[in-house]
């Protein structure tokens, strides 16, 4: 029998597939849909072809398109694993981290070394994916540092902070290996995010997808 059959189930892997979800759209809260809806005007009831001041709309199902900010199951698993690696590296290992490491090494040993260790751990396996995971980790840290705000207001505030950081600090700090000692927790997290990737999302919606929706998917 092939040795791979003995590999235990890796943490975070779901054998099922998710179905589309129905959501109630509020005008004051952004919502990301698995299958986007378009809208068309319903003017067939308008007298003389003149639409009323408030146009009636109906949803029109369009072909699904994957947004760059829409996290797949594998991406979510990699982000969780990357955060676990950050905790362990900083000496903050938890009981869940110990279980994760135990399962990963069990899978690695059961495969006789035929599976890369980073795959067993669920970590990113190429430079581009690793940089993005690192960037998103520090953006979430920056987002969490904005306390006493609603999730959406945090995302809006973080978008403004990124624009400010790019113009005021990054031009002077980009040659440093570590953020200055006087940097705030928000600035220190943004410093690490900017060092991780040249492409930093700057809109509230992009940041909301990274910091909030991915954590609640």
Describe the structure.
By secondary structure, the chain is mainly α. The protein has helices at 73-89, 95-110, 117-121, 127-144, 151-168, 170-173, 185-196, 204-211; strands spanning 37-41, 57-61. Among the domains are: 68-125, no CATH class; 126-217, no CATH class. A two-stranded antiparallel ribbon has the order 1-2. α4 packs antiparallel against α7. The longest helix has 18 residues, at 127-144.
Integer-rounded radius of gyration: 22 Å
How many helices in DSSP terms?
A: 8
Low-confidence stretches: 1-70
Measured as a percent range, the helix fraction is 40-55%
The average pLDDT value, as a whole number, equals: 75
H-E order: EEHHHHHHHH
The strand line-up of the biggest sheet is 1-2
For the report, how would you describe the main beta sheet?
2 strands, antiparallel
Shape: elongated
DSSP strand count: 2
User: What fraction of the residues are assigned to beta strands by DSSP?
Assistant: under 5%
What's the end-to-end separation, in Å? 37 Å
Helix and strand content put the structural class at mainly alpha
Provide a brief overview of the structure.
This protein has eight helices and two strands. It has helices at residues 73-89, 95-110, 117-121, 127-144, 151-168, 170-173, 185-196, 204-211, and strands at 37-41, 57-61.
Using brief descriptors, characterize the structure shown:
single chain, 217 residues, mainly alpha, two-stranded antiparallel ribbon, 2 strands, elongated
